[in-house]
């Protein structure tokens, strides 16, 4: 009987001493397990005289009960303690510097293209797209530039074979769309895209650049419509208050042809180093679609007329953002591209 008392107080002391759940588990095994001390007491009962068995058995049961309750109470305490420790250790330290997630930026040329697309779609224009590897037929022939025409010299062309080339201007798409319309009007579209010329690359020239072509064909389309449209575009692209002016020029696919200047957005037309003191900056070529081009594409040039223009997007972006070297657009220097981060 004394042994039971000893085992019990030993077990309770061990429970008391356990500082974590692992230690408590060891105590549980040691005293309450199948091969534990209390089970061993139970087995000893066999060897006792009959009359002592009930009292002994009862005492062992009380001992087992007491130790079990003590273990359970200790387990509950230690679990609560473990949880609290975990909560303390797992606390977020919001003062730690965060990991910045790098995001891309929209390329400035793409920004210009999106702006132009938005403003023309808003006026009911469609957006056309077409091949960069183009037939001589669409790039030159249908644009009123037959073989041996001196205008072919104006554009140094990358030829793939005598009839295939990298398009030198988006005017090739103007021709494809005119042909596709089969003489039916109205036509109202823009065509942005890459073009290629055998130029030596420098601060203002690139062998590949981006243009946006515009084309409107219908009845009673006049040079005044062209001017109003381009003035609207200039105001949207370079800020309100821009004026434009036409200077006579020559393109084989337009008659008359004009070079279009916008009043300098930097000095408001007063004269500065960007506009070289003139107050005007040349931004694009345009004109009335040549009657011969209309006829070649199956239109009755007595009944319908059209205007067209071709604008270089690099030039617009350079003017708008004060970029002085066209090569910046293609070398993908992060320091350059990051300056166009609208979300910074
Ligand atoms: N294709 C011309 C060029 O690349 C630009 C141009 C001028 C396009 C007049 C036109 C136009 O549609 O009417 O220099």
| Small-molecule binders | 3,4-dihydroxyphenylalanine
- Alpha-carbon Rg, integer: 44 Å
**Strand line-up of the largest beta sheet:** 1-5-6-10-9-8-7
Number of helices: 12
Distance between the termini: 82 Å
Given helix and strand content, the structural type is alpha+beta
**Mean pLDDT across every amino acid position:** 93
Uncertain segments: none
Topology of this protein?
Blueprint (H helix, E strand, L loop, with lengths): L1 H16 L3 H12 L4 H8 L8 H37 L18 H14 L4 E2 L5 E3 H4 L19 E3 L2 E3 L4 H11 L5 E10 L11 E11 L4 H16 L5 E8 L2 E10 L16 E10 L1 H6 L8 E8 H9 L6 H4 L2 H4 L7
Parallel strand pairs: 1-5
Antiparallel strand pairs: 2-4, 3-4, 5-6, 6-10, 7-8, 8-9, 9-10
Helix pairs in contact: 1-2, 1-4, 2-4, 5-10
The protein binds 3,4-dihydroxyphenylalanine (DAH).
What's this entry about, in short?
This protein is an alpha+beta fold and 344 residues long. The chain has helices at residues 2-17, 21-32, 37-44, 53-89, 108-121, 136-139, 171-181, 223-238, 291-296, 313-321, 328-331, 334-337, and strands at residues 126-127, 133-135, 159-161, 164-166, 187-196, 208-218, 244-251, 254-263, 280-289, 305-312.
Question: Which keywords apply here?
Answer:
single chain, alpha+beta, 3-stranded antiparallel beta sheet, 41% helix, rod-shaped
Give an overview of the whole structure.
There is one protein chain. With 344 residues, the protein is α+β, with helices and mostly antiparallel strands. Helix content is 41%, strand content 20%. Strand 7 (244-251) and strand 8 (254-263) form a beta hairpin. The relative contact order is 0.10. Residues 169, 171, 174, 213, 251, 254, 285-287, 308-310 line the site of 3,4-dihydroxyphenylalanine.
């Amino acid at each position: 009987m004394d042994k039971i008392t000893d085992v019990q107080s030993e077990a309770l002391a061990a429970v008391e001493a356990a500082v974590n759940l692992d230690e408590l588990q060891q105590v549980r095994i040691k005293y309450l397990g199948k091969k534990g001390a209390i089970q061993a007491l139970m087995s000893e009962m066999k060897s006792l005289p009959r009359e002592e068995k009930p009292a002994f058995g009862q005492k062992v049961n009380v001992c087992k009960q007491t130790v079990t309750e003590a273990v359970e109470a200790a387990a509950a305490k230690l679990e609560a303690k473990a949880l609290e420790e975990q909560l303390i250790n797992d606390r977020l330290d919001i003062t730690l510097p965060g990991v910045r997630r790098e995001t891309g930026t929209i390329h400035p040329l793409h920004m210009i293209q999106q702006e132009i697309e938005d403003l023309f779609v808003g006026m009911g224009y469609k957006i056309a797209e077409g091949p960069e590897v183009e037939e001589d037929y669409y790039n030159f022939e249908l644009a009123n530039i037959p073989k041996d025409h001196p205008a072919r010299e104006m554009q140094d062309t990358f030829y793939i074979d005598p009839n295939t080339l990298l398009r030198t201007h988006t005017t090739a798409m103007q021709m494809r769309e005119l042909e596709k319309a089969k003489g039916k009007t109205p036509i109202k579209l823009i065509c942005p895209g890459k073009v290629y010329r055998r130029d030596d690359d420098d601060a203002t020239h690139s062998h590949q650049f981006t243009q946006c072509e515009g084309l409107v064909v219908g009845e009673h389309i006049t040079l005044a419509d062209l001017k109003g449209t381009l003035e609207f575009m200039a105001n949207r692209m370079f800020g309100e208050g821009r004026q434009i002016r036409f200077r006579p020029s020559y393109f084989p696919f337009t008659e008359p042809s004009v070079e279009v200047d916008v009043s300098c957005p930097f000095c408001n037309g007063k004269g500065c180093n960007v506009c070289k003191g003139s107050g005007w900056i040349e931004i694009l070529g345009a004109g009335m679609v040549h009657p011969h081009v209309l006829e070649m594409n199956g239109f009755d040039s007595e009944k319908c007329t059209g205007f067209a223009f071709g604008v270089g997007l690099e030039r617009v972006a350079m003017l708008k953002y004060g970029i002085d070297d066209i090569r910046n657009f293609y070398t993908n220097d992060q320091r350059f591209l990051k300056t166009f981060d609208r979300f910074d």
